Amino acid sequence: MSRPNIVFIMADDIGYGDIHCYNPRSRIPTPHIDRLAREGIRFTDAHSPSAVCTPTRYGVLTGRYCWRSALKNGVLYGYEPPLIERDRPTVPGLLKENGYQTACFGKWHLGMGYTAKEGAELGFDRPLPWGNSERAFEEQIDFSAPLFGGPTDLGFDYFYGTSGCPTCQPPYGFIENERFVEEPSVYHDQPVFTSRPGMMVPGWQHKDADPQITSAAVRYIEDQAQSDKPFFMYLCPDAAHEPCTNEVVPDFARGQSEAGPRGDLVWLFDWIVGQVMETLEKTGQTDNTLVVVTSDNGALPGDRTGPTSYRTYGHASSGSLRGFKSHIWEGGHREPFIARWPGRIAADTISQELVCLTDLMATCASLAGAELPEGAGEDSVDIGPALFGQKLHQPLRDHLIHHSGTGVFSLRQAEWKCIFETQGSGGWPPPQGGPPEAGTPGQLYNLFDDPAEEMNLWEIRPRVVADMQGLLDYQRTDRP
């Protein structure tokens, strides 16, 4: 099998019910993703390793659950140090060692190393996550100095994007490789609703971020058409992350959905996928490129109007699933996952195989004809057999561990999903739930019979609970 180009496109906060091919009642047009599904394979039981952003990105690039790292719950904010250890094997590093060109575009959100101005101290030796930074802290940073511990130190040949959410987290400005294209030099003290104050490049417009990221990615694909090496592109737009207001929606995307500004941002993500598909076709690279489209976690219910209130416009962002972003229920982590490789992946197919975004690492190793380094990608499984329609005599995955925004664990094995130490959501959209509480009864669902997680069998099937608790304990504490 020839080595394909690999294009991995990951949305931010897009849910199982947002994409039309998963939810025919979606009020958001997604023609390009729907076309990708017709021309490839659509997974119905694919999951992010976490119900929030940073931990999923760690898992995608390292093939391991983020709770094994220094970040045990929540997300990074703006200025925390690099989360991925410099010596940790990564997907781009593995592919680069095996002849691939590698590039990262868009939202990084895994920490970067900043340099203090002369005579200043930043104090990076704090437990993660930090929370929002004060203006006095940000003004001690030397934004002219090169950054370290980011994409180009972790296997990417090229990076163009932002440190965190370009619409929500400072510093607001584009980074190319290790330096800001233009230094953040003004303090943004009147943020858009749910966005955060912080240092910003003069004239920065949130609504321009994703179109500019897309333009850079398109140019890269065009340039690679002249190369004799395959390429790996990791493309992470900000859409449809908060703040979901008209101010952050590009002019050409406004009103494209019937689900308000957030729906328009989902449409924008579909447009980005279309730009990539069009460029691959124009440059003659479609047939030798594996394109994967997914999301980093579940969706919010809609446009937030207050701390716990949302406008939904009659649109169900999680479809028929229970829960939303940050929740331990299915709506928090079951994702759209579509892959196309013409001539290698059968068109218009559906897979019910249980897969996880951490599986990118083992799958890429297989596609590149490489072996995973010892101790690398311990939570990654090669899903190639499912992609290529091979007859499977047993599931690719024996089990899968989920993690909520507040650190609640659940374990999936075949039909069973067991949630531990809470009977709540484990996240912040309504119904809000807190972190795990030791000794608290949990939740057990048979997802084959009850995909909406309506009937809690915790008290009825204690043996199943005990077996699953033992497996989770082994994975968390006893696994070598």
Topology:
Blueprint: E1 5-11, H1 31-38, E2 41-47, H2 53-62, H3 91-97, E3 101-107, H4 135-138, E4 158-162, E5 175-176, E6 179-180, E7 186-188, E8 198-200, H5 209-224, E9 231-236, H6 260-282, E10 289-295, E11 303-304, E12 310-311, H7 330-333, E13 334-340, E14 349-351, E15 355-356, H8 360-367, H9 384-387, E16 400-403, E17 409-413, E18 416-419, E19 443-446, H10 462-478
Parallel strand pairs: 1-9, 1-10, 2-14, 2-15, 3-4, 3-9
Antiparallel strand pairs: 2-13, 4-5, 5-6, 7-8, 10-13, 11-12, 16-17, 17-18, 18-19
Helix pairs in contact: 5-6
Quick gist of this model?
This protein has 480 residues and is of the alpha/beta class. It is 21% helix and 17% strand. It folds into two domains: 5-387, Alkaline Phosphatase, subunit A, CATH 3.40.720; 406-478, Arylsulfatase, C-terminal domain.
Biggest sheet layout: 11 strands, mixed
Gyration radius (Cα, Å) is 21 Å
Mean pLDDT: 96
Question: Termini separation (Å)?
Answer: 34 Å
Name the shape in a single word: globular
The number of distinct β-strands equals 19
Please give the count of helices. 10
Q: Architecture of the largest domain in CATH?
A: 3-Layer(aba) Sandwich
| Unreliable parts | none
Number of domain units: 2
- CATH fold name of the largest domain, please? Alkaline Phosphatase, subunit A
What is the highest CATH level, the class of the largest domain? Alpha Beta
The residue fraction in helices comes out at 10-25%
Q: Proportion of β residues?
A: 15-25%
Helix/strand order? EHEHHEHEEEEEHEHEEEHEEEHHEEEEH
